[in-house]
Records
---
Amino acid sequence: MLDDTEIVACCSDDGDLALSEAMLIPRVLKVLLSLPAAKIDFWAHGMHVSGGGYVMVMFYISQGWIKPRLVRLASQLPKGAEAKYDPSTHILWFRRDTYGSGPDERATILHECTHALRDIMASPAFRNEGMYGSKIVGQLHFDNEAAAYIAEALFYIYDTGAEMPVGEGDEAEIFKAANAIARGLKDKKGPRVDETDFSDLRDKISLDPIYAGLALPNAPDDIGRW
Ligand SMILES: [Zn+2]
């Protein structure tokens, strides 16, 4: 008897899809269709982040337009990163096919899928109307990053009932700021993130040496090229 993983592996029409990547896809879809993801509903700097948006990401993955992939070379992900969304190729990169077992990894999947959602929202299909009323065209690379951290922090709270562990170092400041914002959004329908809190989070991300090595503080958000 086949389980769901095997069905995906044997029946996919993506001929070059490796078995390990076929194992990864159900893990990503499980996060996108989870109750914690469905409960997400807030506005951050012109972006409406919602459970309906994550269902759209799932649809794009099922059509093969967004592609979860495993890295083959260490350099395919920034040093220290576990996962990444690349808008130029629409690939969701992960280090392992076992990704998504614990709450921190599920929250990371949600974070990367928030980047994917912005990429869809800025695509020709939606950019003029503004998907769900969002207005994200012309924003900065680090606006995108800040929105993803807020979604990640709120997802973690809905998934576990507790706030994301903040850890140590520069990223701890990012997690603390994201947790504080998420605390104010929890259990509300469509609240708006305070713009000062949003720009404070964005600054903390852009000053982090890992992120500073990836983009300049005022770099445009490179999304919507489909
Ligand atoms: Zn990110």
Note: Residues 17-212 form one domain.
---
Amino acid sequence: MERLLDHVFVSRRCNACGGSYDVTLFDVLRAQRLEEEWNPRCKECAPQFDSLLRQLPREQLEAVSRAWEVLWRELERHEVTVAFR
Ligand SMILES: [Zn+2]
């Protein structure tokens, strides 16, 4: 299943190491679900990622994820192929 939340991301840049990375909404939801420790590139990356976990409401991400799964099953049932841009 294509996940809608894999296609929506927040671009983050770390002022300490200069690294940049994209955090998808599914990354956030997965982290919220599992409360896994994200592997930061440096000690400054982690707080930035942690802030996303607090800023993006899990309840709404879960709702979008559930709604998307239902919609995706309907797309498959009707053999409709969708693309992302
Ligand atoms: Zn960094």
Note: The longest strand covers residues 9-13.
